[in-house]
Design a protein that fits this description.
- By secondary structure, the chain is mainly α.
- Helix content is about 75%, strand content about 0%.
- The protein has 23 helices and no strands.
- α9 packs antiparallel against α16 and α10 crosses α14.
- The protein is globular.
- About 60% of the residues are buried.
């Protein structure tokens, strides 16, 4: 088996053309841009009200929203980052695949239906169904923006690497181009354009990843076990055991908690439940999305180990030290430059669609939660709301470009795990307590979100991720790379303790009505 594996690896070891202009990639790139701009033009003609801009007029079907949810969730971190981590660290990279997948039952059983029945545009609408508007919306907007910005960093880093791959441009120029395209989609097409770009992207990504996985398995008699045995034969049995990427068991637990509970706190995912007509459609769309996402993450196992065996960790790191180019390199190894172009274009579509969804949710937090509900106290015309949302879109786009350039060279899967930690600590506990605990007060929920956001950002700053990997210091104040193990319980505890020591009669008396709406929705008349 060892001789066979070595023969396969030697015969397919790439002389990569990454970094050179790729005609096939350019052709796919322009076709995708043309299609999505056409969608944006069509959507712009239908986007006249705030409900059109934020919620696509609530006209998206369950099936369409299932694909759009999957498109929103299967980001560059999934396709590029997980494949890269598995190809260089083996088994440990799979914690991201399983962690991101197991968060979906939480969304299905706890979040989808209450969110659709209680909310309007953002998850803060659910919190304020019985709590005071101003403090809760300010805290929710801060948590949302922190999550969105960290998530955007990861997508922009992946985008920079890909555009450099396709056009031979500098990383910085590539990030600026992606930022400009992202702003155009959201600015003119709103949620209608974003939804259909997600659907196109989901189909492309699932199709491209499936073809690549089948091509990998074809080298090993269509047996995943033969692929894993080949990886162990080349790089030792350690690649099939935990410990290379996440050596500390507490780090593994903390990362797993962030990935599992962060899904239920991601603002761009929660926002999608407002695009369907009712709670039943929301639940059904989660069911479809879970199937699509599960199938995709199973394939990341194959792509990661395939890149490890057929390309090699050293060759992958030589192209990108964060290993984010493992999947495109694997495509080049198996299908030559044309297939590299196709996969690179698919990955580009993946990034562009996700950043559009993220930007829209960030713009909603700025305009709907902060400007309209807090600054204007709900007294803003539809025209003013749309104008503020579009200004917020441009501002977020500029911030994303600047941060994408700053964090050049980081592994995108790991960067996204930090965004999940913020969502799991800032948003998820507050959402759960406000929906299911009658005694929750405005002060308790606000404190929970504030402490969750602040403690997560502080511990990320003190962690090895920033102190060692970015600032190149010898050690870090906080031992864990992902702080979710500390910050999620801390956020829950803060919300419970502050609620028990404060008094909010309106919140308590309003729970019965919220509970009724949560299960039955708005009743006619």
């Amino acid at each position: 088996m060892t001789a066979f594996v070595q023969a396969v690896a030697d015969s397919t070891r790439p002389v990569t053309r990454i970094g050179e202009p790729n005609a096939v990639a350019m052709a796919f790139f322009f076709v995708f841009i043309a299609i999505t701009l056409g969608i944006t033009y069509w959507a712009a003609r239908r986007t006249r009200t705030t409900e059109d801009f934020y919620a696509a007029s609530r006209s998206i079907t369950a099936g369409q929203n299932g694909f759009a949810l999957a498109g929103d969730y299967m980001s560059a971190a999934s396709f590029l980052g997980i494949a890269g981590l598995v190809s260089t660290t083996g088994f440990d990279g799979l914690i991201y695949s399983t962690g991101w997948l197991v968060g979906w039952p939480v969304v299905l059983f706890l979040i989808a239906e209450p969110l659709r029945n209680l909310g309007k545009y953002t998850f803060a609408d659910v919190l304020t169904a019985r709590l005071r508007q101003k403090p809760v919306r300010i805290a929710a907007a801060i948590g949302t923006l922190a999550t969105v910005i960290f998530y955007l960093i990861a997508q922009m880093v992946g985008a920079g690497g890909l555009i450099r791959l396709m056009f031979g441009l500098t990383y910085e120029t590539a990030v600026v181009i992606v930022g400009a395209a992202m702003i155009a989609y959201v600015l003119f097409g709103g949620m209608i354009a974003t939804t259909w770009v997600q659907i196109v992207k989901a189909v492309l990504l699932l199709g491209g990843a499936t073809i690549l996985a089948v091509m990998v398995l074809a080298k090993f008699g269509y047996s995943p076990l033969a692929l894993f045995r080949a990886a162990a034969a080349q790089y030792g049995d350690a690649v099939l055991a935990p410990g290379k990427q996440v050596a500390n068991p507490w780090d593994a637990v903390s990362l797993g908690m962030a990935l599992m509970f962060g899904t239920a706190g991601l603002p761009h995912i929660l926002m999608r439940f407002y695009t369907v007509p009712d709670a039943k459609a929301a639940r059904t769309s989660v069911f479809y999305a879970t199937g699509l996402i599960g199938f995709f993450y199973l394939m990341t196992f194959i792509l990661g180990f395939g890149a490890m065996v057929l390309v090699g960790p050293d060759a992958i790191r030589a192209v990108d030290k964060g290993a984010n180019m493992a999947a495109p390199l694997l495509a080049e190894t198996l299908g030559g430059t044309p297939f590299l172009g196709f996969i690179a274009a698919v990955a580009f579509a993946t990034i562009l669609a996700v950043v559009a969804g993220l930007t829209l949710s960030g713009a909603a937090a700025l305009s709907h939660d902060l400007w309209v509900s807090v600054a204007r106290k709900g007294d803003a015309t539809a025209h003013e709301q749309l104008r503020v949302a579009r200004i917020a879109t441009v501002a977020l786009g500029i911030v994303a470009v600047a941060l994408g350039i700053t964090f050049k060279g980081q592994n995108v899967a790991f960067m996204v795990s930090l965004a999940f930690a913020i969502a799991a600590s800032a948003n998820f506990p507050a959402l759960l307590l406000s929906i299911f605990w009658r005694r929750a007060t405005t002060q308790g929920i606000t404190a929970s979100m504030a402490v969750g956001t602040a403690s997560t950002l502080l511990l990320i700053w003190l962690s090895p991720t920033i102190q060692v990997d970015i600032l190149q210091r010898e050690g870090a104040w906080f031992a864990l790379k992902n702080p979710a193990l500390v910050t999620i319980p801390l956020s829950f505890l803060t919300g419970i303790v502050v609620s028990l020591f404060t008094n909010d009669p309106a919140a308590v008396s309003g729970y019965a009505e919220v509970e009724r709406r949560m299960h039955l929705g708005e009743l006619p008349g």
